[in-house]
Structures are given as structure tokens and as C-alpha cells.
Write a sequence for this structure.
């Protein structure tokens, strides 16, 4: 049998479809499209980051067969590193804040990662999960993925996500919106799309309590305006992946707006997504309202809702946190 046309799971990262978000497209008069990153092998956009970082490390001789990858992550990058790492012969050690969903921590262990939950601390604290991962790498000779400041992260989006969006929209994309976790998706995709057409509008959708909205609109990260239940996004500093990035607009997205969108997409369009996807789509709606009808706006559907069922899809948890599932998306259109 000729096996040259058959590949392992790491070969199937990316090339995800663009899904038309029908109701929001109809209401805004724009084509609002979501990149279905939940269809990657590990279930999220972070599979691209994982593959890009691993390939870069292999090329530089930093990862060798049988090696160990260690990373501080809110979950999805750890899942990607574990899945893609297994496919390429590596072991993963994941340092994760204790505040992340139980489903993520359990899934990481099921996938075979060694998981170290740690108390949540700001980046400035010595025991922030990223610093713990870095120290473990230094002490044990492991490879530290360093997704926040390793620019192989944004490079993989420049090489894959941006070109895919351009090709899938036949060059008709007029806007791109993404939240910021590490900054790799927004920065890498923006760099590619702006090269193809400088007038493509770029937007950042930021949850409350994060600093990128403040950075892009006011030039500083001195922000303390609330909090968000969104996991994996909400950056408080300008990472190396964000170096030199400018956006055309940035918006603060309340959790309730994102949740209203999530439940509409689930009930009416069969899309089961996490809260970061709701924040991204809410940002795309804001862009559509500001730019006017006739736009083609792409955003990222980061991951599925499966890892958040104990929270944003749990009626008791929602009620305890004052969040509603019965609001109409028309309320978002002003």
C-alpha cells in the first residue's frame, strides 16, 4: 500500500471552514463569517499555535524525539501541545491557573499531559503560571513553549490563518476581528491581511478587566474596569506577539452580550461555542454597525462549549452570577 498520501493528526491543523452566521448577517446587512477553529484536532484555534511553536523548535534543534514540552496555559494551548505533541513524539507538562474550568483540567489529564494547577497570580508575580513553567523548563532541561512571547505563534497565523481567510473570501474580506489572549491570532492574521489590502479594517474585541482595549485606544495598559468569565483571553500586557500591532478599532464587550450571542447561535444555528467566541462575534457585530452594510467581516470561533458546561451552560451557575440566556440579540443592535 502506498502510504505517501496518508498523514497523522498533526497534518490536519488549519484549513477550517468559514461559517456564515446567518441571523447576525441578516440583521446587520453584512456577511459575518466565523472561522470554525473548534474543528481542529485538539478542538481550538490554539492547535495552530501549538503546531507552529513545535515546528519552529524542531527546526532550531530545541526539541528532539522523546522530549518534554512545558507551558503555562489557560487550557487550550496545553490541549493543542498535548495532542500535537503526542502525534510528533513528545510529552507535555501543563501549568494551569486553578481558576480554569474543571473540564479543561480533566481533559488535559485524560489526554496524557502532566497537569500542575497553581493559584492564579498576575504576570508581575513570581508564581504566575507562566513563570512557574519557565522555571521548570530551566531546572529540568525541558522546552518551554512560551506562547505569549514566542513569535512563532503569530508567524503560524501569518502563514495559515490569514491566507486561508483571504482565499476563502476570494479576497473580498473587508474586516477582521479577534480578541487577544497571547496576541498571536490577531497580530499574525492582521499582518497578512494588511499586506494583501491595507484598507481591511482590523478590530480588537476585549473583555472587561483586560488591557488591550486601553492599549489600542489610549496607549496604556492602566485599566481596572471590571472582570470577565471568559477563559483564554483578556491580556494585561503587551506581549512580543503584539509588538508593533495597530488596529483600526477596539471594543469592550460585556459577558452578557457575548452570552446572548452564544445562546442565539446554539438555538438557531447549531453552533456550540465558548465565551471567547461570543466576544469575538460581538466584536464583529460592532464592526458591522460602525462600517455599515455590505461588509464581509471575519472573526474566530475559538473553541466549542464542551469545556464550559459547568459554567456558561449551567443554569445554576449563570443565575448565581447574574447572567441571562433569554435576551434577544436585537438588543445588541441598539
Amino acid at each position: 500500500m502506498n502510504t505517501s498520501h496518508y498523514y497523522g493528526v498533526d497534518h490536519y491543523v488549519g484549513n477550517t471552514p468559514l461559517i456564515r452566521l446567518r441571523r447576525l448577517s441578516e440583521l446587520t446587512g453584512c456577511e459575518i463569517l466565523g472561522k470554525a477553529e473548534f474543528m481542529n484536532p485538539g478542538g481550538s484555534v490554539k492547535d495552530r499555535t501549538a503546531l507552529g511553536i513545535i515546528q519552529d523548535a524542531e527546526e532550531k534543534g530545541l526539541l528532539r524525539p522523546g522530549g518534554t514540552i512545558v507551558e503555562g496555559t489557560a487550557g487550550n494551548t496545553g490541549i493543542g501541545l498535548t495532542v500535537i505533541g503526542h502525534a510528533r513524539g513528545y510529552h507535555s507538562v501543563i501549568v494551569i491557573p486553578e481558576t480554569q474550568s474543571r473540564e479543561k483540567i480533566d481533559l488535559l489529564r485524560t489526554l496524557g499531559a502532566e497537569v500542575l494547577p497553581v493559584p492564579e497570580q498576575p504576570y508581575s508575580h513570581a508564581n504566575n503560571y507562566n513563570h512557574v513553567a519557565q522555571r521548570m523548563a530551566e531546572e529540568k532541561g525541558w522546552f518551554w513553549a512560551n506562547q505569549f512571547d514566542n513569535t512563532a505563534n503569530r508567524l503560524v497565523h501569518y502563514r495559515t490563518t490569514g491566507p486561508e481567510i483571504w482565499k476563502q473570501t476570494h479576497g473580498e474580506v473587508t474586516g477582521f476581528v479577534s480578541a487577544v489572549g497571547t496576541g498571536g491570532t490577531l497580530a499574525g492574521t492582521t499582518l497578512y491581511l494588511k499586506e494583501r489590502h491595507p484598507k481591511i479594517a482590523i478590530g480588537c474585541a476585549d473583555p472587561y478587566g483586560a488591557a488591550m482595549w486601553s492599549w489600542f485606544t489610549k496607549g496604556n495598559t492602566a485599566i481596572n474596569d471590571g472582570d470577565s468569565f471568559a477563559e483564554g483571553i483578556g491580556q494585561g500586557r503587551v506581549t512580543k506577539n503584539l509588538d508593533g500591532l495597530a488596529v483600526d478599532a477596539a471594543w469592550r464587550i460585556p459577558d452578557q452580550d457575548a452570552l446572548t450571542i452564544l445562546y442565539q447561535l446554539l438555538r438557531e444555528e447549531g453552533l456550540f461555542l465558548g465565551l471567547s467566541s461570543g466576544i469575538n462575534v460581538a466584536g464583529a457585530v460592532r464592526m458591522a454597525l460602525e462600517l455599515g452594510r455590505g461588509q464581509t467581516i471575519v472573526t474566530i470561533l475559538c473553541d466549542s462549549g464542551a469545556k464550559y458546561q459547568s459554567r456558561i451552560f449551567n443554569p445554576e451557575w449563570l443565575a448565581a452570577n447574574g447572567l441571562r440566556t433569554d435576551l434577544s440579540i436585537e438588543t445588541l443592535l441598539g
Observations:
- The longest helix spans residues 152-168.
- The chain has a mean pLDDT of 94.
